[in-house]
Amino acid sequence: MSINYDVIIVADVIRLEEKRLLEEAQNAGLRVLLLNLSSKGFRIGEERLAPYALIRSISMYRSLYSASFLEASGYRAINSSLSILLAGDKALSLPLFFKSGIPIPPTYLALSPETAIDYMTSRRKPLIDKPPIGSWGRLVSIIDSDITAKIVVEHREEIPSPQMKAHLIQDYVQINGEDIRCFVVRGDVVACMKRKAPPGEWRTNVAIGAQTEPFTPTDTVTEISVKAVETIKADYGSVDIGVDKITGEHYLFEVNGVPEFKGLEKTTKANIAKAIIDVVKR
Q1: I need a surface site. Which of 123, 200, 213, 256 has the fewest CB within 10 A?
Q2: pTM of the model
Q3: Cα separation, 232 vs 164, whole angstroms
Q4: Rounded CA gap, 258 and 59, in Å?
Q5: Domains of the chain
Q6: Tens digit of pLDDT for each residue in 3-31?
């Protein structure tokens, strides 16, 4: 094999995002190859097909492992395996954000069920309990009583994954069912939207029916968004920020290193796919 392409797109489920990236790469005149992880594996040190690899698996670990193997073969992975690892594991990224001076909700790490229950039952509620890994709001729980705390911990103990047995317990931020999602590419905020939780729900994920509207980022939102993506050394990423309705304080909730963006493109009309492809062109 030899370098016959400018970029490969590595994916397992071909969503609208991957189709948009393929479209914008072709519009830019790039030679692009779509590699499906369902039928293609990688050998360490194999000859490169292209200088760049856009890592787009829906699985954090498939993205991480693919990026790592491809980097060993000389590809410039976008995002890198390091960035994907840090973004995908909040127990790794939250301390980095804190050390970088980015405001995050007060967070406690509990690595045993006893520690988790002891902490949650001793704290003022509500609290938020989440595992270090996960997306779309899955297994993120609002703890409003001691009984809820015990139920959530007991349930998580039944999940085989060791990451699911770790608890990131955060003070509840009074966002009143609203937060901000921004998309950053190479230090520029290319789009932002406000997300509103659907009726009967407190989570703001679009995957569970949140309503969206365009949002013009303030200086504070811009600063947090850009600094968060830079902290995990990512070329691009989506950033979730909440504003406490009582204090007005801004808090970074998380950064996604392999983010979806169809909802953000639809809401804001921004060409996010082109912004990502422009990273390859530079």
Answers
A1: 200
A2: 0.94
A3: 22
A4: 9
A5: 7-86 (3.40.50.20), 107-171 (3.30.1490.20), 174-281 (3.30.470.20)
A6: 799 999 999 999 999 999 999 999 999 99
